[in-house]
Amino acid sequence: MTPTTGQKLKKVKQASQRLCRSTHDKHIADMLSDNHENKNTFWNYIKSRRKDNCGVSP
């Protein structure tokens, strides 16, 4: 991999992470602003964040 290719890859990675994070933050903000209308969506999100994503037991 040439230095320019590595730099391009790094910039693309940073841009995609930034977009993903901002989209996630917007989704959470929308969900919190609507929590009075649909509390179930909010609590489902909280419940999903508390679970392990690991499929293999120790």
Automatic annotation (TrEMBL):
Region (Disordered): 1-20
Protein's name in the database: Uncharacterized protein
Organism: Dreissena polymorpha
